[in-house]
Design goal:
heterodimer; A: 260 residues; mainly alpha; 0% strand; B: 255 residues; 80% helix; globular
């Protein structure tokens, strides 16, 4: 993400950021209100915003929002619960590294989305197939970032703990895990974005509720306003989860040296 | 070379072990066919799909969509990123919009673009281009902004014009970062491609996976999934290979 320009702070900087976006929105509004484009295909901004508001007032949006949210978090949580121990193991134990590292680095860039039909076949159309796919997709960044963190732990700490008689399992939890925390958290930041994306795509493809289904249904009825409102909700959800993860990071890693 | 070969084999071994375990579990009856067909059958289905030529039109359809979207995104993204880095007003105009687009999960744009541009190739290519554009612009912008000022000063002192500066100094200096952004875009293109073909299409690898899955032909479905994975893998390898060859002057892509 481009870092914010720092040359002018305060109100001026804020205006600089808001004005281009406002101009685009204004142009959009004027073009659509002037009926230069088909309003069914390209509705004015204000109508989209009104529909967005209405989805919240009449309550249509809450159930899909809740479905997408908890599926993302459940898949992400499971990926953290499995991925962090696995990544630590890979970072410290030779055979685990030999076996898992090639598999995870090979699989990381591959489109796990392609497994949707298989997962529907295995886990059904509803919650489980989606949570499992989110879990699968999030596992890769979390395992790899944890592994790199654990691999980078200075041996000095390990030696000093060993000399005090720390056992192997205790070493993972008490020494390697805290020292890899910053890297693990980078993995979680990546995985949060992945989780929402996979949740929405799998809902668009195989239904079963959620914001993705809300959007695809709006598309089938040709209801651009609702499709747009769903997109806005999805984007805000993704952004909010990302920000929440960053906020949690600051709270959890306040003690960590040399980390922002 | 033989050391690299040994390393490659040692890295390939876990995958082969996994496939062997899959086949053994199927043969021993631990893995019901209903859950997962034996690996040998999946491999046979893949071979049949290749030999009968059924796979090629779909591969071509997918690669055309992804390729056009990707190429447009790379060309536009590098140009836009360079302009943003060099011209303050462009940066002011584009950066807030980019920040707004950044958190949107791009496949979620597919339904909207299908409304706007129809369900054909055009909407898919546009979403792929948009999704690939973001990492390329950001990488180019960051790379071009981080160019060593001394390089700029010394080029200017020798009378290099501002336009030549962009092409002869800023672009080469930003290339390593651009190359990394483009690599991300390759992976993004495939993800958005498959998503869009799942949602609506009548050709392409995503369509093929979805229709075989729909009729319960699990061996053929898995065969196409494996083919897609291999395709993605070799595209990435080929790209890294190209970088190694043509950007050998930079200590880049050592892995």
């Amino acid at each position: 993400m481009p870092s914010p320009s720092t040359e002018r702070e305060g109100l001026g900087a804020l205006a600089n950021r808001v004005v281009p976006v406002a101009l685009v929105l204004l142009a959009w509004e004027l073009v659509t209100r002037a009926h230069w484009v088909n309003p069914y295909v390209f509705p004015p901004v204000t109508e989209i915003l009104l529909r967005w508001g209405r989805l919240f007032v009449d309550g249509t949006v809450y159930l899909p929002l809740w479905d997408t949210l908890w599926r993302s978090l459940a898949g992400l949580g499971a990926a953290i619960a499995v991925g962090v121990p696995l990544g630590l193991l890979m970072g410290r134990v030779r055979w685990a590294e030999w076996f898992f590292q090639p598999l995870f680095s090979f699989g990381f860039p591959l489109p796990k989305i392609a497994l949707i039909p298989l997962y529907v076949h295995w886990f059904g159309l509803f919650h489980l197939s989606k949570v499992m796919l989110i879990f699968t997709d999030c596992l890769f960044p979390i395992v790899l970032f944890t592994y790199h963190g654990a691999k980078g732990v200075s041996p000095v700490y390990v030696w000093s703990a060993q000399s005090r008689g720390t056992g192997r399992v205790r070493m993972l939890w008490r020494v390697v895990l805290p020292l890899s925390a910053a890297s693990i958290y980078d993995g979680v930041q990546v995985a949060v974005v992945v989780a929402v994306l996979v949740a929405v795509v799998s809902e668009m493809v195989s239904g079963g509720g959620g914001l993705g289904q809300l959007m695809i249904r709006a598309y089938r009825y040709g209801d651009v306003n609702t499709a747009f409102a769903a997109l806005l909700t999805i984007s805000v959800l993704g952004f909010a989860l990302y920000k929440a993860a960053a906020w949690l990071r600051e709270r959890l890693l306040f003690w960590h040296v040399g980390e922002a | 070379m033989s050391a690299r070969l040994a390393l490659g084999l040692s890295r390939l071994a876990p995958l082969l072990l996994l496939l062997a375990a899959w086949q053994a579990a199927s043969a021993a009856g631990l893995l019901p066919r209903r859950v997962l067909p034996p690996f040998a059958e999946v491999a046979a289905a893949l071979w049949a799909l290749i030999a009968s030529g059924e796979l090629w039109p779909h591969t071509v359809a997918s690669l055309t969509r992804a390729g056009i979207g990707f190429a447009v995104a790379v060309a536009a993204g590098i140009a836009l990123g360079l302009l943003m880095a060099r011209i303050r007003s462009v940066q002011r105009a584009v950066e807030p919009i980019l920040l707004l687009v950044y958190p949107v999960p791009k496949p979620a744009l597919i339904p909207l673009f299908m409304i706007w541009l129809g369900i054909g190739d055009f909407s898919k290519i546009t979403v792929i281009a948009l999704a690939c554009l973001v990492p390329v612009v950001i990488a180019t912008f960051n790379g071009a902004r981080g160019v060593d000022e001394f390089l700029l000063w010394s080029a200017r002192a020798r009378g290099t014009s501002e336009r030549a500066l962009l092409w002869r100094v800023v672009l080469p200096a930003a290339l390593p970062q651009i190359a990394a952004g483009v690599r991300t875009a390759i992976a993004v293109a495939i993800i958005v491609l498959v998503s869009s073909e799942f949602i609506s299409s009548d050709a392409g690898l995503g369509f093929l996976i979805f229709s075989y899955g729909g009729v319960g032909a699990d061996d053929a479905m898995l065969a196409v999934v494996i083919f897609l994975a291999l395709l993605g893998y070799f595209l990435d390898r080929a790209y890294v290979g190209l970088l190694r060859r043509y950007m050998a002057w930079h200590a880049f892509a050592q892995h």
